[in-house]
Amino acid sequence: MSSASGEGDARSIAAALLIAVVRGSLYAHPHQNTPQAIAAAIGDSRITENEISEALEALGSGTLAHTGGRHWQLSAAGYRKHREAAR
Description:
CATH class: Mainly Alpha
Structural class: mainly alpha
Radius of gyration: 13 Å
Strand content: 5-15%
Helix content: 55-70%
Mean pLDDT: 90
Largest sheet: 2 strands, antiparallel
Distance between the termini: 33 Å
Strand order of the largest sheet: 1-2
């Protein structure tokens, strides 16, 4: 495995973990549903609002969340996925 491939794998894993954290935040705090509010709920200054926005877009493109403007919420599929992952 080359170094570049390893870095790409690490980025993919990090992105998947961030998506799971953002999904979990929407599940636990459904009224904190903007990138800014999610960043505050997560409480990790290393995670930017832009990264949270990208994670929200990924959830939206996978039909696990939807938005009305800048406010996001999990879809029924997103709630199911979160509950399944928590088992």
